Amino acid sequence: MPLVPLFQQPLLLVLVAVVIGLIVGSFLNVVIHRLPKLLERQWRSECAELAGTPLASAERYDLIAPRSACPKCGSMIPAVHNIPLVSYLVLRGKCAKCREPISPRYPVVEAVSGALAGYIAWRYGLSYAMIGALIFTWAMIALAFIDLDTFYLPDSITLPLLWAGLLFNTGATFTDLRAAVIGAAAGYLALWSVYWGFKFATGKEGMGYGDFKLLAAIGAWLGWKMLPLVILLSSVVGAVIGIALIVFAKHGREKPIPFGPYLAIAGMIALFWGEQINRRYLDLF
């Protein structure tokens, strides 16, 4: 049977998507852990060059090399121990050598990536919309966890994501191109306005520029009509999680909470169910 008709069978497509999603989730863990460190190294190197004191060449460090190692004992992780989810369960969440616990975040990222990939394959079938939704969703996962760790949303993900959204919508994959362009501009300007309004009123910065770019990227993928819903959902999700952190995790009110994860969650909700939510809302009036 030819390859494309074979993958048009819904169940097989979903299973393949889940497996690919788990593998991508494993790679996303590498991106989440290494990309901020890689960017910091680049910044330090550039600053040193500008100061006329270039740093000595260091060991190669990128998303490929060096090989993954246990953060506690430094032992290299063999390929057999890098199988998404399975290795974590077999090793019972511990390093095979030093038996120190492995963060549960790793299997969580893999499981979420795989589960959402399966849902996307079931929802969109084998299509450009499926490919686009996978790219959008995996980028949201990476950005959410990077922001949780570092309070930073890297341009190396947000800006290509924005342009990819515009390219996918040249064929009206998720919205028409005009709505996508307006969505990108409106998404950036909406949070840019909030940022400067808050800064003028309080003298403090309420969010970072990465949040502007992330909402611009979401607008480029979903169009300007989804932006009010995304902003509302991200605010609601942020309020619920923020209150829960203060009440249950004793998170101090003065401690900052990254906004990027809430935008990412709201963006995925809008991608999957935004039209239905907007329709229900409009039906009330």
Features:
285 residues; mainly alpha; 10 helices; globular
In short, what is this structure?
This protein is an all-alpha fold and 285 residues long. The chain is built from ten helices and no strands. α6 packs antiparallel against α7 (177-202) and α6 (155-168) packs parallel to α8.
SSE topology:
Layout: H1 3-7, H2 10-50, H3 86-90, H4 105-124, H5 128-150, H6 155-168, H7 177-202, H8 209-222, H9 227-248, H10 260-283
3D architecture notes:
The protein has helices spanning 3-7, 10-50, 86-90, 105-124, 128-150, 155-168, 177-202, 209-222, 227-248, 260-283. It has 285 residues and is an all-alpha fold.
Please give the radius of gyration in angstroms. 21 Å
Tally of strands = 0
Q: State the end-to-end distance.
A: 51 Å
Mean pLDDT: 87
Structural class comes to mainly alpha
Number of helices: 10
Main pleated-sheet profile: none
Into which percent range does the helicity of residues fall? 55-70%
String of helices and strands: HHHHHHHHHH
Strand content: under 5%
Low-confidence stretches: none
Question: Looking at the structure, what is the overall shape?
Answer: globular
